[in-house]
Amino acid sequence: MMLPPPDGPATPSFDEVLRRRRSIRAYSGAPLSALAVSRLLWAGQGVSGPGLRTAPSAGGSFFLGLTLVAGDVADVPAGSYRYEPGAHRLVPLARGDLRAQIGDAGIDDQPWLSGPQFQWKLDLRFQWKLRQV
Asked: Residues in domain Nitroreductase (predicted)?
């Protein structure tokens, strides 16, 4: 599933984002736009130039990936998806709203885990690179 391009109108400065940042555990219930998810995924692991990403990686190994768990995202069916940065697209992994299962799997009493419109998970992806000496 292709995502909309992550560009658009100017966004607030980094300083402004830090000033306005708050932890929220009560969600509006309004669906999140596909553009907002596109921008968040691109900011987390997107391609920013030839051989470059928005997140650093030792030796260009890019062993961290992102998995999106969509529950209420406009134009994105509920389910889990692997984010492919090169194509800026989502690859389906599982169908259905998985938020309740994630909430149940939380440590102790964390009912807020099942509330947000989406969640993303960091994946550790090892790809061994062999070199001849």
From this structure: 18-69
Cα–Cα distance, 54 to 72 (Å, whole number): 26
Q: What is the pLDDT of residues 9-20, one digit of tens each?
A: 667 888 898 898
Q: Can you tell me the distance from the alpha carbon of 82 to that of 44, in angstroms, rounded to the nearest whole number?
A: 13
- Does a structural domain hold residue 56? yes
Q: What is the domain extent for residue 118?
A: 28-124
pLDDT digits (tens, 9 = 90+) for 52-68: 888 887 777 777 788 88
* Beta bridge partners of residue 120, listed in sequence order: 68
Q: Report d(CA 92, CA 120) in Å as an integer.
A: 14
Please indicate, yes or no, if residue 15 is contained in any of the structural domains.
no
Whether the CB-CB separation of 31 and 73 falls below 8 Å is answered with yes
Domain count, the chain: 1
Tokens of 90: 């989502």
Query: At CA 35, angle to CA 117 and CA 64, rounded to 5?
Result: 75
